[in-house]
Amino acid sequence: MKKLLFVLPLLLFAQISFAQDDEESDEPKQGWLGTGTFSLLFNQAAFNAEWQGGGTSNYAGNATISYNLNYNKGNFTWDNTFLGDFGLTKVKDDKYVRKTNDRLELNSVAGWEINNSNWYYSFFANFRTQFAKGYEYAEVDVVDETTGDVVGTETVRTETTHFMSPGYLQVGPGILWKKNENFKVNFAPATARFIFVDNKFTTVEGYEDGDYFGASISAYANFDIVENVSFENMLNLYSNYLEDPQNVDLDYTGKLNMKVNDYLSANFIFQTIYDDNAVRAFQVREVLGVGFTYKINPQEEE
Predict the structure, then answer these.
(1) For site-directed labelling of 210, which of 83, 258, 290, 296 has its Cα 20 to 30 A away?
(2) What is the pTM of this model?
């Protein structure tokens, strides 16, 4: 299963590259170009006391922003991407509002074109963290102080993460292959990686600091499947030369965007992460929703 999840994104990008070879690349616009989208999705379910089919009333919301700020001038290109996701859900009779989605990511790649080709000398930076606190939840017994009897249970939560704990930063020089704004791959064979976390997490028993220096590959592809349906893909791979280089960290996100009209859309997001320094298993999240979408600077996409 692990090998399958690792290979699928690579096969997808290979297929996209062959498809892109048949298309003529557009000359990039000179100067600054900023475009993006903001989406707000809302889900709600309600059941009255007489409902016999089962279910619990709940509501959930998810906000997503994606903004690209790119610069082209002569043989110099500089691509910047801001990604933000945040979601909450509340289930009836649950004591806490729970976080369902939390992501803050910044990507920046500067490139200097090599001999009027699609190849560039590059330098990249990638930063990832989260907006709000994360918790682990557990059910504990409620004991009557007078009799000592267990009279029920309650939910308690323990803070495990928050903004910049953890935070991840990767930087390094490399080679960029860029056909257009919608298809590019960057290879950085000398990548420094930094992980930031609070002292309270580094002082627990069993914690060990790690050294991170290795190679990274980042790829981006966005293409139309049919009219008003696009598929956006982001893939990041990292291998640490100093510790288990064969254990490649993977972060893949696929986003299917379906346009209803200028303000309504549906999207499906699939993300899988493998990082054996965090969890020796694949982390997977999925988000599916219909909601409001606002385009930022849409006139610049014409």
Answers:
(1) 83
(2) 0.81
